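Reply to dn_fold:

You asked what the input looked like. This is it:
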Amino acid sequence: MSRRILFISDLHLEQGRADITEALLAFLDRNESACDALYILGDLFEVWIGDDDSNELSAKVAKALNSFHAAGAGIFILHGNRDFLLGADYAASCGATIIPDSITITTPIGPAIVLHGDDLCSDDVQYMQFRTMVRQASWQQDFLSKTLSERRAFAEQARQLSQQATSIKENAIMDVNPAAVEQRLREHGQTLMIHGHTHRPAIHELVLEAAIDSRNQARRVVLGDWDRHGWYAAIDADGLVLEKFPL
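and this is what came back:
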């Protein structure tokens, strides 16, 4: 088997969207033994309040991912803005490894930076302040010490406030900042970036303000969210593709 890597993000799995869960299970079934790595770049779940909040959905997803891993694929999970509390215990039940945001990985077409993408939306000052708060270890420890009912209430309130804020924000504010993108590429010395979060699937060909190791062009691949369609990117020796399929 030639080396093949798959990337997905922003499935936002939840009890009320059984169609997305079934689409994920079908996607895993189609690609079982047909790739050697799967990267989940954040927001696998719509909400995650701790690994101790076990339920039928999380168990079903863990079982399917673990089977996919057992068939020969490495699984790597990156935190999103919805599931940043997903921990090592749940990842282990999936046969997966949690990886840090903005990590450089090796692919058949060269190195790539993978990230969720929310921290590139630097124009959204309100969100960036919230992100800084909830990513602090002290905040997370305090939150996880609360009862499940308290955590659910907080998560529901945060979700409602997020929806309200999103409805009145300018569209451009919720997209990535081009300067932040180029800065991240420069920090890692790479010219290929793959992320999710914005729900604006596309392959962007970039002309850099300043060359990176004599290269003045880069690519930014944005994965789509799973709603009416599922989205994935695939890399093999023949190149990179971004594909969608109906749910």
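The first strand starts at residue 4 and ends at 8.
Hope that clears it up.
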